[in-house]
Specification:
two-stranded antiparallel sheet; alpha+beta; 19% strand; 16 helices; nine-stranded mixed sheet
Length: 450
């Protein structure tokens, strides 16, 4: 009897094939071994990771998956031991897979395109929890309230089209009043579990530079480090430049931060009023100033931009003085990609809602699994939209594509020209046809001189 394959079964097979290809292409088994994952009992780590990896695509959480479709030989305790293990290095696993993905994408990117590193944090919400390890109250900028959870600091790579999370760290509040659950006193300080929790108590700036330590900027062909105004302090900018990368960031008005312009020190608002303004365009003003950290001085470029609200403006800073104002704006626009990544991870991949564990290790594990899912989706999206991933086929039809593109562009321009002539000038159709014929005859003569 012939088997009827429904559309649902076909999609299920296609999904399994995509995940299998990702695990095989990126050699997830070897990556797990390098990150200190090992087999404790009957089930291999790669099988456990594959099981947890697929959960989100089945629209089930761990509890419903076991209730409706229990796996033989795979108990709940086995999964929770896997997630709660203090030995496994989830950050190293994500970093290795991310590096493989980036090194696959870089050859597909033009040499003229600027690759960037983006640093930003987002709220990891655990507002319904009470006994989660290292839980603290953090400020939610969307609601303006303090809620229970963590700050998820992430360092991501982007070429403007594809964004790949490289490494991350969960941060807690260092204020005793905001701490819900403290660091356990009986924890062994020689263990990785203690180091993981100790790192969570770091200042966000120090945590950012810790994440940057293991990054090979030349290997990733990174030109700029982008971050929001939360990190835009002179000390941070100067320190980042010493690591060999230029910085482009947004500025905010701070009373204790001054910029030296023509020998005088100004706060950001005063600097805006002191520089000459342009009457038209998106750029209000552009000026070179100096920022200071103790005895160190760094010359930077500050670009003031108009917003939809005429009474407000924003300021961007670039340590590369050779960039034009438009280039500064364009490159900083790539920072938005990490916001898209955060939204996708939360709303579609359930970054802060899928986890049920209470240990700090399980929170890191769940975040790592979500970022691995995002890397797979980012690579699949790149493969689906970038023709250069089709291999030699791209090079065979490259010349034809250029000719077709030129002809299409020429026809669009000519059609737009005819429409404007008919609307703006009082001419007969015969006069328009005559003028169009003369224009077509002149095109070869113009191209001959170029």
């Amino acid at each position: 009897m012939a088997t009827i394959i429904t559309e649902e079964n076909y999609k299920e097979q296609e999904k399994n094939a995509t995940i299998s290809h990702f695990f095989r292409e990126f050699q997830i088994g070897k990556a797990l071994s390098s990150a200190n994952f090992y087999k404790e009992k009957g089930v291999k780590p790669v099988e456990l990771l594959r099981y947890l990896f697929e959960l989100i695509f089945t629209n089930k959480n761990l509890y419903r998956s076991y209730t409706m479709n229990p796996k033989p030989g795979l108990s709940k305790n086995t999964v929770y031991r896997f997630l709660n293990s203090p030995v496994y290095d989830w950050c190293k696993l994500v970093f290795r897979i991310a590096m493989q993905a980036i090194l696959t994408i870089i050859p597909l990117t033009s040499e003229q395109r600027e690759n960037v590193l983006i640093v930003d944090d987002t709220l990891y919400n655990r507002s319904r929890s009470k006994k989660v390890d290292m839980l603290s109250k953090v400020y939610d900028h969307t609601t303006g309230k303090f809620i229970k959870g963590f700050k998820l600091l992430t360092l991501a790579w982007s070429d403007g089209n594809t964004t790949i999370p490289l490494c991350f760290r969960h941060l807690v509040s260092t204020n005793e009043k905001m701490t819900v659950n403290h660091l356990p006193d009986n924890i062994d300080k020689r263990t990785r579990a203690y180091q993981l929790r100790r790192n969570a108590q770091q200042n966000p700036v120090e945590a950012m530079f810790d994440l940057l330590k293991g990054i090979d900027l030349k290997k990733l062909k990174v030109s700029y480090l982008l971050f929001d105004s939360w990190f835009a302090f002179p000390a941070v900018i100067i320190r980042a430049c010493k690591q060999g990368t230029d910085v482009i960031c947004m500025l905010k008005h701070l009373r204790n931060v001054c910029y030296t312009y023509k020998g005088k020190k100004y706060e950001l608002k005063a600097l805006y009023e002191a520089v000459p303004h342009k009457r038209r365009g998106a750029v209000i003003a552009s000026v070179k100033v100096q920022i200071h950290k103790d005895d160190e001085v760094q010359t930077v470029k500050v670009v003031f931009l108009r917003t939809k609200n005429e009474d407000k403006w924003v300021a961007l800073l670039s340590t590369n003085l050779d960039l034009s104002d438009e280039e500064v704006i364009r490159i900083y626009g790539k920072r938005w990609n990490i916001e898209v990544m955060f939204k996708t991870s939360k709303h579609f991949l359930h970054l802060d809602t899928e986890a049920q564990g209470r240990s700090f290790e399980s929170i890191y594990a769940q975040t790592a699994i979500v970022y691995l899912r995002y890397i797979m989706l980012a690579c699949e999206a790149r493969s689906a939209t970038d023709p250069r991933t089709c291999g030699e086929l791209f090079f065979l039809v490259c010349d034809e594509l250029k000719d077709i593109t030129f002809l299409e562009a020429l026809m669009i321009l000519l059609n737009a020209f005819l429409v404007d002539v008919r609307n703006e000038l009082v001419l007969t159709e015969q006069q328009i046809d005559t003028m169009f014929s003369i224009f077509i005859r002149k095109i070869p003569c113009c191209l001959r001189f170029h």
